[in-house]
Every structure is written in structure tokens, then in C-alpha cells.
Amino acid sequence: MRKSINGLAAIVEGIFRLDLFGMTLFVFCNRNRDRLKILECDGDGFLLHFKQLEKGHFKWSLAGDEQTMMLTSEEMEYLLGSPRLTQKIKQQEVKANAIV
């Protein structure tokens, strides 16, 4: 988990031989499976997202250190636990509409 944008981009292109500039997110997990980094190209640059769990671990395959998996958006939401995030966003939208 020491690599930043350039190091992760080198892994994607060099080891996995994948296109960095597509509509794809590249997710990297540490050995303890309690931290994720997500590399994303937004068209004019790269974004690096980081998530660390306080308790538990991500549901991540242990089949090998250097593997690729194709995930659907639903699987990605499940991996990140984003239903809570979606719920928070919806609550904020409701509060904003109530003020108007």
C-alpha cells in the first residue's frame, strides 16, 4: 500500500497489461484486506481513493497476489459497503429539498 498514482499505474500497464484510460476502476487491496486503493482516470487526470476499515476486512479473493477480477457495479458496491454512503447522500438530498 506504499504506491501512489504513478506506481499503481505502472502495475496496471506493466503487469496486468490493461488500458488505464478506459472507463475502469482499478482496485488494490493489502494483505490484511483492511485497506483498499482505487485508481480512476477521469479524462484529464487520475484520482486515487483510499478506504481503511476500522473493524473487519473486505471480501477479497485470496487466490494470489497478482490477479485480476472483473466486478459488476453491484459487486463493487458490496465490496466497498457503499449502500451506507448512498443512504447518506439521499438523506442530504432530502434535507436540502426540505429547506427550499
Summarize the structure in words.
With 100 residues, the protein is an alpha+beta fold. It folds into 2 domains: 1-69, no CATH class; 71-100. 36% of the residues lie in helices and 19% in strands. It contains 3 helices and 3 strands. It has a 3-stranded antiparallel beta sheet with strand order 1-2-3, covered by helices on one side. Strand 2 (35-41) and strand 3 form a beta hairpin. It is globular, with a radius of gyration of 16 Å. It starts with a helix and ends with a helix.
In short:
The protein has 100 residues and is of the alpha+beta class.
Set down the secondary structure blueprint.
Elements (H helix, E strand, L loop, with lengths): L4 H11 L9 E5 L5 E7 L4 E7 L20 H8 L2 H17 L1
Antiparallel strand pairs: 1-2, 2-3
**Widest β-sheet, arrangement of strands:** 1-2-3
What percent of residues adopt helix (DSSP H or I)?
25-40%
As a percent range, the share of strand residues is 15-25%
N-to-C terminal Cα separation, in Å?
Answer: 44 Å
- State the order of secondary-structure elements, H for helix, E for strand: HEEEHH
Largest sheet: 3 strands, antiparallel
Low-confidence stretches: 89-100
Name the structural class. alpha+beta
Q: Quick check: average pLDDT?
A: 77
- Rg (C-alpha, Å): 16 Å
Form type: globular
Helix count, DSSP H or I runs of 4 or more residues: 3
> How many distinct domains?
2
* Count of β-strands: 3
Protein name: IS66 Orf2 like protein
